[in-house]
Write a structure and sequence with these properties.
The protein is of the alpha+beta class.
C-alpha cells in the first residue's frame, strides 16, 4: 500500500475518487482526490480504445507501432470480450496511411482483426477477419487520410495479440521520372519516393534524382523499401551513387527486396552530391520506397591546417636552419631544411582527385525487360529467385568511399 496524508490508497480510496467525480464528496483530502482523478484519467486514456471508444493515432513519415492490450513483446495474452478500435490519422488530406501487421497471433475461434478505410468501422473493409498466426504480407493502404483497425475477442481461447506498424505516405517523386531532377537538401528533412507511392510503382520506370548541396555533405536514409526481389537486382532496383553521375565505380548500394525484409539504412556522401536511380521492368510492381535526405555540415578536422600554422611552421624551419647553420655551415642547413619540409608535406593529407569515369550511363537507357509473368499484380508467392536480402554492395575502387552509418535490415522496413 502507498501512504498519502496518513491514509492508504486501497479500494476505499478509488471509490472515493469515483464519488468525487459524481457527487463531489470530500471525505478525503483534496490531494488524494486530485491524484485519484489523474490516475483514473491516465488509465482511462490507455485502455479507452477497448472500452467502446476509439483511440486516435497520428501518423508521420517515420515508422511508429502499436499493439493489442497486454501484448508484452509477444509474450503476453490479451483478455476476453474485448472490442478495441484505433483510428490512424495521416494528419494531412493529401497523405494516406500505410499499415502493416508486423506480427500477430489471434485465436480463430471468435477473435479477429478488421481494417477499414476511413475513421469509422462502417467504412469500406480493407482486410477482414484476420486471425491465426504469422507475419504474412499484410500491407494495407488507405484511400484517404484515415484508417481504422478493430480488434475483438470472445469469452474463450485468448492468444497473444498483434503488433502493427504505420506511417503516412504520399507521392513525392516529383519530376524525377520524366527527366533528371536536381534537389537541394537543407538541414530540415526532405523526402523522395518511388512513383505513385504508396500505390504500386509504375512499370517500365526510369527515374533519377540528384541531391546536391553547395557545401557540406548529403545524408540519405532509406526509411522503407518494398521492391521486387531478383538476382543481382536485374528486374527492379533502387541504386545510390556517390556523386552526381551514374558510374559503376561510384555505386554504393543497390536495393531490391520485399517488405518487411526491405533494406533500411543511412548513407553519408563523400562529397556534396548523391544520385538516386530507380528502374523497373515491364511487369510486377510493389509499393516502392520512402527516402529521407538532409544536408550535413562538413566536420572540422581534428588537426586543421591553417594559414597561421603554415606561417608558424615556415618560421620555425627558418629559425632552426639559422641556428644549425651557425654551427654546421650553410650546406648542412639547406639540406636539413629541405628534409624537414619534404617530410612535413608528406604528413599532410593530400586532396583526393575524383574517380575517373570510364562508363557513364545515359538517362534514356531503357530498363531491363523480361517476359511478364504477372501483369501488374502483387503476388507474394512469386517464384523469382531471391538474392541475399536483395542487397548488393560493391566496394569503390578509389580511396574515396561513402560511409554507411547504420545500414541494416529490420523487420519492418517497415
Amino acid at each position: 500500500m502507498i501512504s498519502l496524508t496518513g491514509k492508504k490508497l486501497d479500494c476505499d480510496f478509488w471509490m472515493c475518487a469515483i464519488r468525487s467525480q459524481m457527487s463531489f464528496s470530500l471525505n478525503y483530502s483534496k490531494c488524494e482526490i486530485i491524484v485519484g482523478l489523474f490516475l483514473l484519467n491516465l488509465f482511462g486514456y490507455v485502455f479507452s480504445q477497448c472500452s467502446g471508444s476509439a483511440q486516435t493515432l497520428t501518423a508521420g513519415q517515420s515508422i511508429q507501432y502499436f499493439t493489442s492490450p497486454d501484448y508484452n513483446n509477444g509474450a503476453g495474452t490479451y483478455s476476453s470480450n474485448l472490442d478495441c478500435q484505433w483510428i490512424i490519422d495521416s494528419n494531412d488530406a493529401s497523405y494516406k496511411v500505410i499499415l502493416y501487421l508486423k506480427n500477430y497471433n489471434v485465436a480463430c475461434s471468435g477473435d479477429n482483426i478488421n481494417i477499414f478505410d476511413g475513421n469509422t468501422v462502417s467504412g469500406t473493409a480493407l482486410k477482414s477477419n484476420i486471425c491465426g498466426s504469422g507475419a504474412s504480407d499484410k500491407i494495407v493502404t488507405s484511400t484517404g487520410q484515415y484508417m481504422t483497425l478493430r480488434f475483438t475477442s470472445d469469452a474463450v481461447n485468448q492468444s497473444v495479440g498483434f503488433e502493427a506498424a504505420y506511417f503516412s505516405a504520399t507521392d513525392l517523386s516529383g519530376t524525377g521520372c520524366t527527366s533528371e531532377q536536381t534537389m537541394t537538401p537543407t538541414t530540415s528533412p526532405q523526402y523522395v519516393t518511388s512513383p505513385s507511392f504508396p500505390s504500386l510503382y509504375d512499370v517500365s520506370s526510369n527515374c533519377r534524382w540528384v541531391l546536391t548541396v553547395p557545401a557540406g555533405r548529403v545524408q540519405v536514409e532509406i526509411i522503407y523499401s518494398d521492391i521486387e526481389t531478383s538476382a543481382n537486382c536485374a528486374f527492379d532496383s533502387l541504386e545510390i551513387y556517390d556523386g552526381d553521375y551514374v558510374c559503376e565505380n561510384t555505386k554504393i548500394a543497390a536495393v531490391c527486396s520485399r517488405y518487411p525484409s526491405g533494406i533500411t539504412g543511412t548513407y553519408l556522401s563523400n562529397g556534396t552530391s548523391f544520385l538516386l536511380k530507380f528502374k523497373s521492368d515491364g511487369s510486377v510492381s510493389f509499393t516502392g520506397y520512402l527516402i529521407k535526405f538532409i544536408q550535413v555540415e562538413e566536420a572540422v578536422s581534428s588537426n586543421p591546417l591553417t594559414s597561421s600554422d603554415e606561417n608558424g611552421g615556415n618560421f620555425d624551419q627558418l629559425m632552426l636552419g639559422i641556428g644549425i647553420g651557425c654551427a654546421c655551415g650553410a650546406t648542412a642547413t639547406l639540406i636539413l631544411v629541405f628534409i624537414v619540409s619534404f617530410f612535413k608535406s608528406k604528413c599532410r593529407s593530400p586532396k583526393i582527385a575524383s574517380p575517373r569515369v570510364k562508363t557513364v550511363e545515359p538517362m534514356n537507357g531503357g530498363p531491363h525487360m523480361r517476359t511478364p509473368s504477372v501483369n501488374g499484380s502483387v503476388d507474394s508467392s512469386d517464384s523469382i529467385s531471391h538474392s541475399r536480402n536483395g542487397f548488393i554492395r560493391r566496394p569503390l575502387t578509389t580511396s574515396r568511399r561513402s560511409s554507411m552509418i547504420d545500414g541494416k535490415s529490420h523487420g519492418f522496413l517497415p
